[in-house]
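Thread amino acids onto this structure.
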């Protein structure tokens, strides 16, 4: 049995050399790379890297989007016993310094000029980085930095080497072991410096196989690789499972064309965080608002039927003949064309993870015939811990433990996991490793939750973030900030939320509106605005957001556990939270502590009972320049509700 990534590559190249392994869209045309061609490319790259001095245990950083030669380079590194370390391509140069220094990286692969510039800039702080290779040569013709060369040169030198040493590559691949380190992924660093999560070939491939068996994946699947390679979610779907199953991975031309490419490919297996599904639905609803009255009426009628009937059909529950017939008609008129427009006409299994997904959003996709499900996992668990079986997909849980996984709940509500997919260690950080891995093999997830009566796991919040309200109407009540934030983000008008309340007498939140959704809403009501800051402070927008907040409060009042997490006051921020400004991680998680410090005058104003507060904030533009945005922000009170007592 093939037990390492390079061995799986050679298996596919030997058994099905002419089958498609990857496709890449260049200049509007899809180019196909077969398994045989990929194996040859990997062999030549391995030869070139071997000549450059890369050996067992060496790290090579990969910075760029999903590209065949980037994947091939990771395989070449693994074949030599080295360790690929993908970094986020949108990370600022300064963010790359710590991983490069921590992992003592000597080799790097950059996708293009932007990434080369970034790596050359940080060489002052990471002088051990002596070899930088680039894939796309555009703009780099006159660069003559020491150690900088193209992948074409690397591959050419490798081709000469393997021609003279025909057994070199196969011997190297045969020598790889499942217990060898296969890759390292740096965490997002929500609360401090990122940590290098060390995974073996076995831990990654074991979870890849468990997920593949769970959903009956085959070599016939089509996958679109459009999320960052550095995110282990994308890596497991388009790398680990790709090599395990042998299906086709498609690389879009650019981030700007990903939606169009999605429609052209029509994947059968799809994975995206909730924000992607939210964005797709928002674009659909915006287009529907501009449609004719007849089309809007037909869409509304069909969607009302789909909401009532669709989820039952997806879950295999009984549905009356008339409803089945009407749904079939709706499928011809609305659902089928809508799935095709979204690029989901061939999707057999779709997953979302990373954040909670709104019940209405989740129900929408399932109601139109898309088998959208949730999973639970993390970088440290190689993703697959819990998966939702077909016919058991629910918006409020993350599924049942998959093969090989044990789960238990600690006394403080923390979820503990035992799995073959657990990290080996945090790189050069034994103290952090000891904090999360027990001597008997249990991993502390830091997530609070419980197993419900149906055996499904339900996540409430991060353990460290769960607190108590002190004083006020809800004195002593449980406070779960992420739970509150996610409930508010379920509304399409709200993009980001940061909630505070632990140790305070009430819960207050900072809100980012979704500029596209609220902008379209304003335009349809002839409400003029001059950019995000102006729109965010409109009276009408505050009223719109207030209705969302109070609806969440009404929902929370019926939750005996979290009724005290209702929001008493809120404000709409004058700028969008941004990873470049340090407010979000590269995986778009809010850095609550950092935001509390940066916007302390706003947080203080919320709790001091003020109704407005001036704020000036420094921002970083895409070209690296800095500037400032200032505004006097309104602060609004929201209605809270007495907890609903459960029936006896």
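Threaded sequence (648 positions):
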């Amino acid at each position: 049995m093939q037990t390492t990534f390079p061995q799986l590559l050679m298996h596919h190249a030997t058994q099905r050399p002419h089958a498609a392994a990857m496709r890449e869209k260049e200049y509007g045309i899809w180019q196909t790379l077969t398994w045989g061609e990929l194996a040859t490319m990997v062999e030549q790259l391995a030869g070139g890297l071997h000549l450059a001095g890369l050996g067992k245990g060496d790290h090579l950083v990969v910075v760029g989007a999903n590209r065949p030669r980037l994947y091939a380079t990771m395989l070449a590194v693994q074949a030599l016993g080295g360790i690929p370390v993908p970094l986020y391509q949108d990370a600022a140069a300064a963010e790359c310094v710590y991983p490069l220094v921590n992992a003592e990286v000597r080799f790097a692969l950059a996708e293009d000029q932007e990434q080369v510039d970034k790596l050359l800039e940080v060489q002052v702080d990471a002088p051990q980085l002596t070899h930088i290779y680039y894939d796309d040569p555009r703009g780099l013709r006159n660069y003559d930095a020491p150690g900088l060369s193209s992948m074409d040169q690397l591959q050419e030198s490798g081709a000469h080497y393997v021609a003279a040493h025909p057994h070199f590559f196969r011997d190297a691949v045969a020598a790889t072991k499942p217990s060898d380190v296969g890759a390292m992924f740096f965490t997002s660093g929500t609360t401090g410096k990122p940590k290098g999560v060390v995974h073996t070939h076995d831990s990654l491939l074991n979870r890849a196989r468990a997920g593949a068996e769970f959903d009956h994946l085959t070599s016939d699947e089509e996958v679109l690789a459009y999320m960052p390679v550095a995110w282990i979610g994308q890596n497991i779907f388009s790398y680990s499972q790709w090599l395990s199953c042998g299906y086709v991975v498609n690389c879009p031309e650019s981030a700007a064309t990903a939606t169009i490419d999605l429609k052209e490919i029509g994947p059968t297996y799809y994975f995206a965080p909730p924000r992607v599904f939210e964005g797709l639905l928002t674009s659909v609803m915006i287009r529907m608002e501009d449609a004719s009255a007849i089309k809007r009426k037909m869409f509304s009628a069909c969607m009302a039927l789909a909401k009532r009937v669709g989820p039952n059909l997806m879950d295999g529950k009984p549905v009356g003949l008339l409803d089945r017939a009407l749904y079939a008609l709706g499928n011809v008129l609305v659902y089928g064309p809508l799935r095709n427009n979204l690029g989901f006409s061939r999707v057999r299994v779709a997953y979302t993870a990373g954040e909670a997904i709104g019940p209405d959003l989740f129900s929408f996709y399932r109601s139109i015939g898309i088998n959208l499900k949730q999973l639970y996992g993390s970088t440290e668990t190689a993703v697959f811990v819990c998966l939702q079986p077909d016919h058991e997909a629910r918006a409020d849980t993350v599924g049942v433990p998959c093969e090989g996984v044990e789960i238990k709940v600690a006394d403080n509500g923390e979820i503990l996991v035992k799995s073959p997919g657990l990290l080996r260690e945090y790189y050069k950080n034994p103290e952090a490793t000891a904090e999360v891995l027990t001597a008997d093999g249990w991993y502390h997830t830091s997530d609070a939750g419980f197993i419900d009566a149906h055996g499904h796991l339900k996540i409430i919040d991060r353990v460290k973030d769960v607190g108590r309200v002190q004083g006020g109407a809800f004195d002593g009540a449980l406070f779960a900030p992420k739970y509150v934030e996610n409930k508010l983000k379920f509304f399409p008008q709200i993009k980001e939320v940061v909630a505070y309340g632990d140790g305070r007498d009430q819960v207050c939140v900072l809100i980012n509106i979704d500029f596209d959704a609220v902008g379209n809403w304003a335009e349809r009501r002839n409400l003029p605005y001059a950019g995000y800051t102006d729109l965010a402070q409109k009276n009408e927008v505050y009223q719109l957001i207030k209705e969302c907040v109070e609806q969440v409060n009404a929902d929370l009042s019926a939750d005996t556990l979290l009724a005290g997490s209702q929001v008493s006051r809120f404000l709409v921020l004058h700028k969008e939270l941004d990873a470049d400004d340090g407010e979000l991680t590269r995986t778009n998680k809010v850095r609550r502590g950092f935001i509390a410090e940066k916007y302390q005058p706003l947080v203080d104003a919320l709790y001091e009972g003020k109704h407005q507060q001036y704020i000036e904030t420094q921002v970083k533009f895409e070209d690296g320049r800095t500037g400032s945005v200032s505004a006097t922000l309104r602060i609004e009170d929201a209605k809270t509700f007495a907890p609903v007592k459960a029936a006896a």
